[in-house]
Amino acid sequence: LPGLHVFAIAFALEVTVGKTNTVTALNNSDVLLPCSFTTCIGFQDLVFTWYFNSTELIYHGKIKSKASEPFLVGRNPRVEFVGSTTGKENNISIVLKNVEFSDAGKYTCHVKNPKEKNAQHNATIFLTVVQKMVETDNTLTLIIVGVVGGLIGLLILFMLIKRVVLFIIKKTQDGKKECLVSSSGNDNTENGLAGSKAEQKAPPKA
């Protein structure tokens, strides 16, 4: 079925930049822009490109087959390829060196696979460049965690004390019961009541 074949080809090639598509980098630092692709039927002479803000080509590479690593066709001098395609994952990530504020924007990782009738797919990363990383103030969080932890600790301590007190009370009450039973038994014996250890008199003969 021609329609089914086209449907399978359309969903065979996938490109991803990971769990999040936003990256923050310090000014004058190097930043990793991750990207990988998957294909159900393999690839041959695959072409991948990286674009800045959809128009500026910053890296262009090709991969002959799964058995070979990518080779460079063209790149921006500040861009370095750090991926690998002979391993488990088809990694085509790049590193942008000496990031500047003007580098902030959209980076698109684009892949075209001739083996899949030139099927194409891409994924996008948004880069933000900052002067310094903002430190998260965790003081309030630490206070809340400390208070909650303290309350839980007190609750556990209270429960332990309660169990010990109840255990002591139970033992004390059990001891009193034993004393009462013992005293009652002694009284019965001394008074010669029924059920006691005193000898029973035989009934008179008719």
Largest sheet: 6 strands, mixed
CATH topology of the domain at 26-69 and 77-130: Immunoglobulin-like
Query: What is the number of E strands?
Result: 12
Radius of gyration: 41 Å
Distance between the termini: 118 Å
Helix and strand pattern = HEEEEEEEEEEEEH
Assembly context of the chains: single chain
- For the record, the CATH class of the domain at 26-69 and 77-130 is Mainly Beta
The number of helices is 2
CATH architecture of the domain at 26-69 and 77-130: Sandwich
- 3D shape: elongated
Percent of residues in helices: 25-40%
Strand fraction: 25-35%
Low-confidence stretches at least 5 residues in length (pLDDT < 50)?
A: 1-10, 179-191
CATH superfamily of the domain at 26-69 and 77-130: Immunoglobulins
- By helix and strand content, what is the structural category? alpha+beta
Strand order of the largest sheet: 2-12-11-5-6-7
Q: Taking all residues together, what is the mean pLDDT?
A: 81
InterPro entries: Ig-like_dom, Ig-like_dom_sf, Ig-like_fold, Ig_sub, Ig_V-set, Myelin_P0-rel
Biased composition (Polar residues): 181-191
GO biological process, one term: cardiac muscle cell action potential involved in contraction
Keywords: Disulfide bond, Glycoprotein, Immunoglobulin domain, Membrane, Signal, Transmembrane, Transmembrane helix
